[in-house]
Specification:
Helix content is 36%, strand content 16%. It has 413 residues and is of the alpha/beta class. Bound molecules: 4'-deoxy-4'-aminopyridoxal-5'-phosphate (PMP).
């Protein structure tokens, strides 16, 4: 029995059925069977959290708080840290952005996902570096220039566009050396290396359950409690209020409750904790890296296909590869892959518009110059490069097989 829940076979346009090749795991991962089982086991007891007496409420409150403890444990939390359950990574960064004290300068690289770009107003934007080492040096320079200011650096751990892994532990060291804090977007690292999150040295970590094989609508913002305890509640309402006077003024709770107003997402929290427990000690990398090598080698062998990358080709990465196929409308290509080959991919700019546009332009340029160096004949057969305004992304994880990769490569061929 597969350890993830899958639809099994899907019908193709020509009437044949094939096993679905889900190569869009970075957008939303399938559900781990242990996660579905944990949720199903809890459902008969489903009741209110923090809001009632009786067997159901007691059990649900206990499970919710145990889920919080599991996350804290896996993140290596100390007494000054807290775990807040959010809706997703986007929600987590919006919450953190509201909790950052007045006068704090936020520093973010241009390469970020919108979730870690748009919530920061007036951030100091650092141009996207061309290597992990360049990222470390650029951050050190920027922080040196901001000496004397309160600074929060916010950075991704792994790119959802290129899969490239950022040197977060080194960036955290640089940040701390300069008296700054660092927030880490672990949306794409958590599903590939959940056991590594504790070693990142991050002051704050954000990630989403639905990318971590735990698709029940919850995410996490975890990290140092002081800013969060001092901030206005993210949502005003029940649960966040310790006492409300007759005139409606509230004294707010401290701790995670302050930012979790309203009835919390019990199933989402339990799902995340179950997934983290199941995956923390697993070697996910060996299989994934072998699939990654297979896919990248296959793509490199295809003329008119070019991979998007910010860092050098041999940089460390997780199972995410974006590429351009000039001359083919990416949306139409994705539909063909789906209907004729049973493959799910993503196309677009992946909610990282500035980065993806730039990498697309570079990849297209590399292809164009490669082709112009060839014969007149191949130039005449060259694709229309004006159509490559969007990229195609293949991403994978638990449940992906060599056959899925080979099927994509054959279809692209
Ligand atoms: N950061 C990264 C790196 C992501 O890949 C994503 C999802 N594409 C997000 C943040 C936002 O996650 P969510 O949509 O779950 O809020």
């Amino acid at each position: 029995m597969s350890e993830i829940l899958t639809p099994g076979e899907v019908k193709l346009r020509d009437g044949r059925s094939v096993g679905f090749a889900n190569l869009d795991v970075a957008a939303t991962a399938p559900c781990l069977r242990v996660v579905a089982d944990a949720v199903a086991d809890l459902l008969p007891y489903y009741g209110s959290v923090h809001r009632g007496a009786g067997a159901l409420s007691e059990r649900c409150t206990r499970e919710y708080e145990q889920a919080r403890e599991t996350v804290a444990d896996i993140l290596g939390h100390g007494p000054d840290d807290t775990v807040i359950f959010t809706r997703n990574t986007t929600d987590a960064f919006n919450l953190l952005a509201r909790a950052v004290p007045e006068g704090t300068t936020v520093v973010a690289f241009d390469a970020e996902h919108h979730a870690n770009l748009l919530p920061w107003r007036d951030a100091v934007r650092v141009p996207a570096p061309r290597s992990p080492q360049e990222a470390i040096e650029a951050l050190a320079r920027v922080l040196h220039g901001l000496k004397g200011r309160n600074v929060l650096v916010s950075v991704t751990a792994a790119s959802n566009v290129t899969g490239e892994v950022w040197p977060v532990a080194e960036l955290a060291e640089v940040a701390h050396r300069h008296g700054a804090r660092i927030a880490v977007d672990a949306a794409q690292l958590a599903p590939h290396a959940p056991g590594s999150l504790a070693g990142l040295g991050a002051d704050y970590i954000a990630f989403s359950g639905h990318k971590l094989y735990a698709p029940f609508g919850a995410g996490v913002l975890a990290g140092r409690a002081d800013w969060l305890d001092a901030a206005e509640p993210y949502l005003a309402g029940g649960g966040a209020s310790a006492h409300v006077a007759d005139d409606g003024t509230a004294r707010w709770a401290t701790g995670p409750a302050r930012h979790e107003a309203g009835t919390p997402n019990l199933l989402g929290a339990v799902a995340i904790a179950t997934a983290l427990r199941a995956l923390r000690d697993r070697d996910l990398a060996t299989t994934e890296q072998a699939l990654l090598r297979r896919l990248r080698a296959g793509l490199a062998a295809l003329p008119h296909v070019e991979e998007l990358r910010l860092f050098p080709a041999d940089a460390e990465r997780v199972g995410i590869v974006s590429f351009t196929v000039p001359g083919r409308d990416p949306g139409e290509l994705a539909v063909t892959l789906g209907r004729d080959h049973g493959i799910g991919v993503r196309t677009g700019l992946f909610c990282a518009h500035p980065l993806t546009r730039r990498l697309l332009a570079e990849a297209t340029g590399r292809l164009e110059s490669g082709i112009s160096e060839k014969s007149e004949k191949s130039r005449r057969g060259a694709p229309d490069f004006s159509q490559s305004a969007q990229a195609v992304r293949a991403s994978f994880g638990i449940g992906t097989t060599e056959e899925h990769i080979d099927r994509l490569l054959a279809a692209l061929q």
